[in-house]
């Protein structure tokens, strides 16, 4: 089994697409105005409008209400990403800091309040943990 994608549901697809194009450096594929996908090397990040949830059942999702998931992106240089994104991100949660399990990490929220973590393994143990992963 392969983890294929994460889909976020929102009332404003265009607003999230704009931020995630800036964050990922990847242009979204837009097969429909209510749907976008970012094909990243390790996974696909999808964004769907709340109108699309009816396709999955009445109680399948509510846009912009999830506070239990952190989208995590491993990056080569957290400090450089912080400088690059400082003008784009409006809601910073934590500036770059080293966390106890050995990652250098920064956290911020997208316009819907979803939490994003950009991290870089910096200790020997953390680098070992991530060796061989995409």
UniProtKB/TrEMBL annotation:
SUPFAM superfamilies tied to this protein: Glyoxalase/Bleomycin resistance protein/Dihydroxybiphenyl dioxygenase
PROSITE patterns, A to Z: VOC
Organism the protein comes from: Paenibacillus mellifer
Domain annotation VOC: ranges: 2-121
Record InterPro entries: Glyas_Bleomycin-R_OHBP_Dase, Glyas_Fos-R_dOase_dom, VOC_core
Name of this chain's protein: VOC family protein
Residues passing through the membrane, by range: none
